[in-house]
Design goal:
This protein has strands at about 10-15, 30, 40-45, 50, 55-60, 65-70, 80-85, 100, 110, 120, 125-135, 135-140, 150, 155-160, 165-170, 180, 185, 195-200, 205, 215-225, 230-235, 240, 255-260, 265-275. The chain is an all-beta fold and about 280 residues long. It has three domains: about 10-85; about 100-170, no CATH class; about 180-275. The protein has a six-stranded mixed sheet with strand order 16-18-20-23-24-22, with no helix packed on it.
């Protein structure tokens, strides 16, 4: 067969032997005489009309049969070619650790020749490996003294996971301020609401935070409503200087800001700012 342009370097066309099939206007499923991995691997002609994979036909019995959406009429002419390999069939094989080349010059690839590890090579250098540790997914740099950098579309660096053992952020890393629900007892999830505020509409009790992680810092802005003089009773898990809880600002619409550090059992106050004008 002659080709215009670059010839096919790999892959095969195989005409399937379907001579044993009977087309009677009723049957829709027929043997292929071969096992096929995807409908797209077949070129099917029905009375000279090319059929659309997934619409006009599908595979059955694990890829050993073809099912037409409309039963071929009695005496129909069905011609089926299997396309496999690089000419268009899907990659449906076990690479068994072989290197999968991704670019034209052959220097970017994915390999899994180490058990339970995927290695990514870019520009002929090992860059990243994916492994598992106790069920966790591990993303690790493959070359010593190299960083993992995340950039946005225009090339601006956002995060640098530095080989020196630290991470740097070129833009702010922040927790959006959450608004706690006011009530007789105010609940606070330290894991999902580490930076929060609450406006007191009455004398309240501050519950122990849930979800705390040892070493974590959290901050709470306590705001007086338009009436003011609201009080707050703190759960015993909050630890203040000299074991004495602070007295809130009583002025309407003003706020007091508190910062705590968790040591695994107590939320230790590390800072406070009282009597703040908020707008």
């Amino acid at each position: 067969m002659a080709y215009i342009g670059k010839s096919i370097e790999s892959g095969t066309f195989s005409v399937l032997d379907t001579s044993g099939n009977t087309y009677n206007g009723s049957n829709t499923t027929f043997n292929l005489g071969s096992q096929v991995g995807s409908p797209a691997q077949l070129l099917v002609s029905h009375d000279g009309v090319i059929q659309k994979p997934g619409t006009d036909y599908s595979l059955a019995s694990g890829g050993t049969q073809i099912t037409f959406s409309t039963a071929p009429a009695s005496g129909a002419s069905i011609f089926i070619v299997e396309i496999s390999g690089a000419v268009g069939g899907p990659l449906d094989s076990d690479l068994n650790g072989a290197e999968l080349i991704l670019d034209a010059d052959g220097d970017t690839s994915i390999t899994a020749d180490t058990d339970d590890q995927i290695d990514i090579k870019i520009a002929n250098a090992d860059h990243v490996k994916l492994t598992s540790s106790s069920g966790d997914t591990v993303l690790q740099q493959s070359t010593d003294a190299k960083d993992i950098i995340i950039k946005q579309y225009d090339g601006t660096e956002l995060v640098n996971f530095n080989d020196g053992g630290y991470s740097s952020f070129t833009s702010a890393a922040l927790n959006p301020e959450a608004t706690l629900t006011d009530g007789a007892t105010v609940s606070w999830n330290a894991l999902t609401q580490p930076v929060a505020k609450v406006t007191l509409a009455g004398n309240r009790t501050m519950a122990a935070p849930s979800g705390g992680v040892t070493g974590q810092f959290i901050a709470l802005l306590v705001i007086q409503d338009g009436t003011g003089s609201r009080t707050l009773t703190w759960n015993a898990v909050y630890e203040f200087k000299d074991d004495t809880a602070p007295t809130l600002t009583t002025t309407a619409s003003k706020g007091d800001n508190f910062t705590f550090r968790y040591n695994g059992s107590k939320w230790l106050e590390v800072g406070r700012n009282l009597n703040l004008t908020l707008s």
